[in-house]
Design brief:
single chain; alpha/beta; about 45% helix; globular
Length: about 140
């Protein structure tokens, strides 16, 4: 588990943009099963989370259509919440960072680490905006 003082700025990068941190399996289940659309960002300390996933997730919100709910869990910090989120992302293997869009509890769009790593944040944002336009 990573020290709180190390991950706090990484968490705040998303919470300052309106994402709610989830820490328990029950919080994850409630968020994903909520009516409407829910964007789940599995945050991470890695460079591709810093360069691509977090900025791309934030940029994606500059769109006419947006998810109803924005939530995040942190790999290496919120083990229970991350495990629960990954359970809803099955059959995709665990990866962090990753970004998933759910509609009425059903997984409708998924970006795994290999879709994020090495891609510009703008491309991540465009990919998410396309999903928002289709499902939100």
């Amino acid at each position: 588990m990573y020290p709180e003082e190390m991950v706090k700025p990484m968490q705040e990068e998303l919470t300052s943009a309106g994402f709610q941190e989830l820490h328990t399996a029950q919080e994850v289940e409630n968020a994903i099963k909520a009516t409407g659309t829910t964007l789940v960002v599995v945050n991470s300390v890695c460079g591709c989370a810093a360069r691509n996933a977090r900025p791309g997730s934030k940029m994606s919100l500059d769109n006419a259509k947006k998810p109803d709910h924005l939530v995040t869990v942190f790999a290496g910090v919120d083990k229970e919440a991350v495990d629960a989120a990954r359970g809803f992302m099955f059959p995709f293997p665990p990866s962090s960072p990753s970004i998933a869009l759910f509609k009425d509890g059903e997984l409708v769009h998924m970006l795994e680490r290999h879709h994020i790593e090495g891609r510009a944040a703008e491309l991540i944002a465009d990919n998410l905006k396309d999903a928002f336009n289709e499902y939100c």
